[in-house]
Sequence to fold (160 residues):
Amino acid sequence: MKLHRLRRTLEPLLRRGFHFYWRFARGATLGAFGMVIDGQGRVFLVKHSYVSGWHLPGGGVETGETLRTALRRELREEGNIRLTAEPALHGVFFNSRVSRRDHVALFVVRDFTQPSAPVPDREIVDHGFFAPGALPPDTGRATRARIAEVFEGAAPSEVW
Fold:
């Protein structure tokens, strides 16, 4: 329990510190995320060591990377997932919770392989495929909203 409380205390400080650095190192930030859907209609989610809750896999686009290159890298790093066909762009969202200059591109991935389950590490502490109607209770708000857009036809938002 102490580790959980420490993480909750440090999480906002670390996030602000990283974004303070990024503010000067990058004019704007861009993320590439994937909603990976398996043959049973389940969605792949990850749990990070540095932020609470379950989220779609993805992360920042590095200098010199395209969105799809960043997506491929992030899916491989976070889920040992390899694309076997081009993903469909679901949308681009403004992520004001991170900074006033952050945007997130979300791709829907249906064609992939996962040669083996990823091994938890310092960044990803847990992972799994979940039915859209049976998400873990601590699934993030933005993740729930994107899943509702894809599976239930909810109106897409411009905000992550």
